[in-house]
Amino acid sequence: MSGPIRLEFVLSGDHVDRLPPTASEVAIVGRSNVGKSSLVNAISNRRKLAHVSNTPGRTRLLNLFSVVEGPAGNRSDGRLPATVMDLPGYGYAAASKQLRAGWQRMIEGYLLEREGLAMVVVLVDGEVGPTKLDVQMLDWLRSHGIPHTVVATKHDKVRSSKRERRKRDLAAGCDLEVGDVVWVSAVKGTGIDRLRGLIRTWLS
Ligand code: GDP
Predict the structure, then answer these.
(1) How many angstroms does the Cα of residue 125 sit away from the middle of ligand 1?
(2) Quick check: pTM over 0.70?
(3) Alpha-carbon distance 30 to 184, whole Å?
(4) What dotted CATH number matches 7-203?
């Protein structure tokens, strides 16, 4: 049993250089509508949090949260002890090519340069399966040797009779084994405790 991870909003930035240093960070990324806000809320048991990230203007920024656990206070070296990065959703169809290129630079810059980045959680819609953009993101992370884990969302939306098949297909579409993918449902709470435990492990 792994209880809620208490998160506090730190700031939104548009460049990795402007983020405060961290000892250990887990980043969450996925296309818009994949269920990212719902998942962040479920992990932290707070509704207002992902709302912060969904505030107009912040949806396109790097939103940093501090994990508040154990003894309070910063480390003596000035780094935040543990943080969660909510990355902007990719694949807004409405965005211009130029805007999309700007986001891509921001996200890629972050992923390549962030010190303390321990794990990138790549959200894939469990109902839809991996999209072309999801696969591109996974290929890119692999090509740069950046540690990542696929979390499939909306487990409750897949009919139980189709789950085993879907799990196999989704994993294969991501070029992974079935057991490599963590399935969750923010609505039903499925897999949330397990994911909290994994996040705590990655951050420690
Ligand atoms: P975001 O754009 O990635 O932040 O996605 P949201 O968290 O806003 O979710 C997008 C849509 O999917 C919303 O209508 C949510 O209610 C729905 N959704 C998110 N997670 C789940 C889930 O676990 N189960 C179901 N059934 N719907 C979900």
Answers:
(1) 9
(2) yes
(3) 14
(4) 3.40.50.300
